[in-house]
Design a protein that fits this description.
Layout lengths: L1 E4 L4 E6 L4 E7 L4 E7 L4 E6 L4 E6 L7 E7 L4 E7 L2 E6 L6 E6 L4 E5 L12 E7 L2 E6 L4 E5 L5 E5 L7 E6 L4 E6 L4 E6 L4 E6 L8 E7 L4 E6 L10 E5 L2
Antiparallel strand pairs: 1-2, 2-3, 4-5, 5-6, 6-7, 8-9, 9-10, 10-11, 12-13, 13-14, 14-15, 16-17, 17-18, 18-19, 20-21, 21-22
């Protein structure tokens, strides 16, 4: 499993059997997010302060080999990849936006406003793509948006137990996992933005969950956290569905 270590400006490879960091690569600036380029033996990392997406090969065991990079128009935040396209969120642009681009940096779609001309996003953060629909956390609005390929918000997930949503990921079977940072839990919803339930919470040791990853093969959830409690910031928590 590949993770970005923001504060240490590093990219790390974690053995999911021994749970040991097997490889660490220091980067030129603090990374924000990472996505796997499926079937390409590669990953893409957003380097926000450099306005850059850096590609690395993961073809060889325990190594990150630097490939090409893309300079983008603005501070790129979070990233996902599906069907040959990169989906990238930009927070500090006016208005905030999502760019859909090819691997060589050609922007094929820029999502900024809805059909009424209003800003589509207020505080976009992590995003995941399922069947060409984008699911993105709208942090300050305490919502998760389902956005169509045409750039329309077709569904919105709102829940009293969802506050300051951060990480979001597709399980691949029609469900979405969401980190709710302020309420210290992880939600499970359908791709129609219907709540299934809160699957992890404070009783499971969650404090300020920030990002989430899911492995369908092992039915395992990986959660990273960030809070003002130092003992909550320096590890990944691992949970397995029964």
């Amino acid at each position: 499993m590949v993770i970005v270590d923001h504060n240490n400006a590093a990219l790390k490879l974690v053995d999911t059997v021994s749970y040991v960091v097997s490889t660490t690569l220091r980067l030129t600036s603090k990374p924000r997010d990472v996505t796997v380029l499926s079937k390409l033996d590669a990953i893409a990392v957003t380097l926000t302060e450099e306005c850059k997406i850096q590609f690395f090969s993961t073809r060889y065991y325990n190594t990150f080999d630097e490939l090409t990079s893309l300079y983008v128009d603005g501070k790129c935040e979070c990233i996902d990849f599906l069907n040959g396209k990169l989906y990238v969120s930009f927070l500090f642009t006016s208005p905030s936006r999502i760019d859909v681009m090819t691997l060589d940096g050609v922007v094929v779609k820029r999502l900024t406003r809805d059909q009424q001309g209003a800003p589509l996003l207020t505080w976009p953060d992590y995003l995941t793509v399922h069947e060409d629909y984008i699911f993105i956390t709208n942090y300050w609005n305490n919502t998760v948006l389902k956005i169509s390929p045409e750039g329309e918000t077709v569904k919105t997930y709102v829940d009293s137990e969802l506050r300051w949503p951060r990480g979001v990921t597709s399980t691949g079977d029609g469900h979405i996992l969401i980190c709710s940072r302020h309420t210290n839990n992880v939600h499970l919803m359908t791709t129609e933005c219907e709540k299934v339930g809160v699957v992890l919470g404070p009783r499971d040791g969650l404090v300020g969950p920030w990002s989430v990853c899911y492995c369908p093969k092992s039915q395992t959830i990986y959660v990273s956290s960030y809070s003002r409690k130092d003992n909550s910031n320096n590890y990944l928590q691992v949970y397995r569905f029964k």
